[in-house]
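Revision sheet: structure tokens.
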Amino acid sequence: MSLKPPPLRDDCFALPAGVDWTPVDVALAELDARLHPVKAVENVALSVAVGRVLASDIKALRSNPPLPNSAVDGYGFAFAALGEGDQLLPLVKGRAAAGLRFEGRVPEGHAIRILTGAALPDGVDTVILEEDVNASQQAVAFRAGVKPNANTRKAGEDVVKGDICLQAGKRLGAADLALAAAVGHGVLPVYERLKVGVLSTGDEIVEPGQAAQDGQIFDANRVMLLSLLEQMGFDAVNLGLVRDDREVLRARLNSAEVDVIITSGGASAGDEDHVSALLRDTGSLNEWRIAIKPGRPLALGVWNGTPVFGLPGNPVAALVCLLVFARPALGKLAGNGWLEPQGFSVPAGFSKRKKAGRREYLRARMRQGRVEVFASEGSGRISGLSWAEGLVVLPDEAADIAEGDAVTFLPFSSFI
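Predicted:
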């Protein structure tokens, strides 16, 4: 019986005394060190395992291929029996086909008809392509020059029985399932899917498609965050919209049957920032003032044992903070390990002078071998998110970027 890992400590997000503005790398290292998987393990069939996180190393139950076999349709024989020059070998009766292993032994100096994937019969170690022979019902003829072991596969040349073929923490894709099936597995141990709830708060927020009054805005963040979380392989749960009513918000948090809660907005220190107020009441609120642009303090806390990530309300800042901070943290909680997004060094298709002090993430896309950035850096420009294909990362220190200089580009796909 599998055991569920322990919950996170209530003080897991507490910063050391005296910490003020935290560099991005320091913040990420702190999160990585404090988090661990929080889900139990279950066994699931291969047919429903795609996208799940493997909970333990998987060893091959048998070798792949299990027996030496032919890589082509042709004729098999023992190489040592070949003489000099052109060859003429008598054929034995029968053939070797995949799933129908030839019974008996092919005598030395004889050949046998063999098909792709068929196990090599006893007495056969080399196969010649059928296109390279002339054959009758009694014999096969071919030119000199065949190499020993040609067109054959060794037993276990892909995976040997007992070898670890899939490692714990891997998010399973289609190819992983094919490998598991090939080495004998029908079910795999995986972590239960991490349930991540997304909650919106605020009197100014209106559900998309409904009538909006002056001063109200449509809730763009929740649909964006829910969609991203599903793409990342999590079980995204819509916790809805809560008005600026602290007790209603408390009840919604108490009733949320999720492993993690993500909010956007309402997590700062204003009069109507009720998420932060409730977390402060429990003594678990920690505002990580991270040296990042775009982004404000990242509010982190634990509500009744459930970690809460309070993202900024501006859509661009919410997206950046989700990708940079919440994504690797959620992966760690889900058993997937700490994700380091794959960046690429590419020529800049823009120029920019950057001040020291904060790491900057610019909306960007690749065009004609160079990376270009969105014209505006405003955190409310949602059109820039739709325009972009990823983020350009500028370092913490001052930088003077000229066109053609190497910069780091993180495609959105590297976070998925």
